[in-house]
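Would you be willing to look carefully at the protein I have copied below?

:::
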Amino acid sequence: MIARTALLVLALAASPAIAQWLPSYGGERAGQASYSFLKSDYHVGSSGMGSVGSVLGGDARSMGYNPAGLAQTKGLSMAFTSLGSGSGLEQGSAFVAGKVRQRSAAWGVGIQRLQTGAYQERTEFRPQGTGRLLYDAQTAFLLTYSQQLTEQFQMGLTLKALNETYSAGYTGWGAAADIGFQYHLREEGLRFAVVLRNFGAPVSLQGSNWAVGYNRDSLSSLESANLPTEFAIGIHFRAMQRGKHHLDLAAQLVHPSDNAENYRVGLEYRFADQLFVRSGIMLNQAGQPFPTMGLGFAQKMGSTLALLDFSVQPTAGMGSWTAIGLTLQPQTFKAP
């Protein structure tokens, strides 16, 4: 009965009628932030559930959304993610995390990167291309620390060094931080979370290259842009637990600095902690009106547990974003 109710709630949330009830204040801020790849969900399990990653945790994947979840790490954990779309953009991440000895804490290091495909340099005098290929890339280097403060409460902090490079002759550096909190009521099967992502000072590019010098004034400076800061509040609870069958529900409110508020609902069915089926929806998120889908498998490999995750995020104008993730960790892992 609970499972049918959860599915009905998710279906209603996806309907256009419900979406029209939600306020859209803040949409005029769209496109005003740089380093937009930082908003991507590098936790593939979360992306299959509509990106409700603030309330998930337990391994290195937590560095992709809420660092507080890293405190549950039991040993050395590694997570690798690849995201792609039909537009030629490629994103990826690699996270490594470990437990701090004799403390209820964990550390982590990682990298996130967006890379464009090669494209022709074009000018008004050479509209068919100059013969020169250009590439653009954005990179974030991560350092994370997460601490279990009490039996129920944990927090985490991620520091990010940011780099943006354009082969046309421009580059820029910046810094950002994520800070997150999670509160667990394990007996009730509840988890609450708050996370502030990508908080930092405005950044700007440096460079003065002109592809064509004719009729150009000297370039004195480039405008700065804000980072895509997000504030999210989430809740996660166990809707059903019968033997090897589990059904978890999650919901999240996200307030971004460069768009309108959006709301996310997701669910995950789990069988024997080996098979994971996920789905979710983002409400009031322009360009993403369709449900997300995800699938996960867990397989023991000696003393290591391998988790393989897939997710698909259909969009209205850029095709479907697909993601695949591989996580390696000790067999002592138990899905949170």
